[in-house]
Protein 1
Amino acid sequence: MEPGEARQVLPQLRRGALEYCVLALLRGQPRYGFDLVRELSEADGLLTSEGTIYPLLSRLRKDGLVTTTWQESDAGPPRRYYALTADGRSALERFVVDWRRFRDGVDRVLGTTPAPGPGRGRVATAADGTDGGQVGTVTSSAGTGEQPGPGRSG
């Protein structure tokens, strides 16, 4: 790999994750486009220009992952607010599970995180049966010869 090629990794990662970051920002409440732009711009490396977010929001709407409504604004013209749909929430939950698996695998290969073992947990998601996407830690003694102790699941 040539030195210049390494710089192309961030745009590729951004393209793959940006739409799910937008869905994640819509989890709590509907938001308007510029609010999303501001939030994503504050997260290092996620948004390079305002012009990338609006076509993405349009595609998410066409795909049925978000809905839109117009609301009056105290400071100017009406704003288009975006809200997560049930399909959008499901897509986000699947992505979170896949992302964590991918991230953990890359971290292990790079040596930036210890491999799972006794006493180390993984993050539980809504797909694991936790309530409403709340995050918790699940520990496992599978394959270690240990018996689950108090406060531990097996």
Note: The two ends are 44 Å apart (CA to CA).
Protein 2
Amino acid sequence: MTSRLLPAFLFAAATTSAVLLACSSKDESTFTPTPPDASPEAIAPLLPDAGGSEGGEGGSGVCVADVPANFQSDFVPPKQNKGACQTADIEGYWTNCLANIREADHDAVCDAWVMANATCAGCIAPQDRSGAVLWLSYGGPKFYQINSGGCLAIVLADSSPQGCGALTHDASQCTWEACGKCQNPTDGTCRAEARAQGICSSKNNVRSSVCGTSDASRAECVFGDLKSAYDGTAAIFCGPP
């Protein structure tokens, strides 16, 4: 398997749209900004979203949050490899492996790019999920996110489980798990419901308390839209020194 973790996993058959916590038709394929993840600071992970409230396990037409009873963090300390990619390479991964996810020839195009740019691709999206782009699944369709938790861990020089980066990842992971079996695991309504319940609420509160608002270096991982988040995070992980 190549280091891009096969974007074909993204919502099997690649028939759903890719937007960020915003409703749209399943036939659309657009990217829009995501709001902060239960926090006044825009540090939430940015996710492709299938748009609209679709049936979860019961197919009721509404995706109901199933907050995990036993939460276990899957945060992986980030691996920074400055110089693994030039700016043009970072753009190349976006063009060949992310922006084109609904194209019929996506897999072949991305595979070819990854093979020709193995060092850069291995930094951006390694299989151990320590890079700038994460490919994820929690019992349902697979999707990708920009690794904002890892970005924070790098800029704050703290990859510990108690650090802002890991806690940012955990707060979002909890909502992904809660909605993971839905047809659209990044449904904004489901994730908002999850954030208000049980362990997910606790994770968000702890994240907010630890991360705070005063550390200026956090701004390095704050972006207004998906493309900017990808460009900035990939540059921090893998870009020129």
Note: The longest strand covers residues 133-136.
